[in-house]
Design goal:
The chain is mainly alpha-helical. It is built from 10 helices and no strands. α2 packs antiparallel against α3, α3 crosses α4 and α8 packs across α10.
Length: 188
């Protein structure tokens, strides 16, 4: 007798989905909320909906390529990262608009305002400006940590980089953000 899908590990579900494609839905249930929250902070709600759907559609189509050597979540976030990279220009424009206006385009109402993430409202525009100035790779690593709530090891897997490189990128990004925010506060 086989176990219910909810009791299977991610890799087992991927394997089972070749005979029972509907089993893949459990992976969406497990991973979509966290992935959506991260992408929404990166690109806004509309693109997040599209990117999450496209990420899972791609993962489903390519599930035969998943070999189980990496965690499914890292593989999935890697797919999402590739799709986000396609929208990099949109993200940069969003950060620049936030820096200019002080209005966070990713916020969409009271539900987000009462979420458990800590926001520095007064620093928001300055932070957005500093984020827009980071290199794409440094920003990706930092935002996977801060907004995606991934561990350093998960980020290394997602970005296909050595753990030490990820730690260095995050350290460098934090240093640049701190310096930029200090400069803004000194001038403000």
């Amino acid at each position: 007798m086989s176990r219910p899908t909810e009791q299977l590990g991610d890799a087992e579900i991927v394997a089972a989905s070749s005979d029972d494609p509907e089993a893949f839905g459990e992976l969406f249930h497990r991973h979509a909320p966290r992935l959506h929250a991260y992408i929404k902070r990166r690109l806004g709600r509309t693109l997040a909906d599209d990117i999450v759907a496209e990420t899972f559609a791609t993962a489903f189509r390519q599930r035969g390529k998943f070999d189980g050597r990496a965690e499914f979540a890292a593989w999935l976030w890697g797919i999402a990262g590739n799709l986000i990279a396609k929208h990099h220009r949109q993200e940069t424009r969003m950060f620049r608009a936030f820096a200019r206006t002080g209005v966070d385009p990713a916020e969409d109402g009271i539900a987000d305002l009462v979420s458990d993430r800590v926001t520095a409202t007064a620093q928001g525009p300055h932070l957005a400006k500093a984020l827009a100035a980071l290199s794409s790779q440094d920003r990706n690593a930092l935002l996977l940590l801060a907004w995606g709530e991934l561990s350093y090891a998960e980020i290394a897997a997602v970005l296909n980089l050595p753990l030490g490189t990820v730690k260095a990128k995050i350290h460098r990004a934090r240093t640049k953000l701190r310096a930029a925010l200090l400069r803004e506060n000194d001038h403000g």
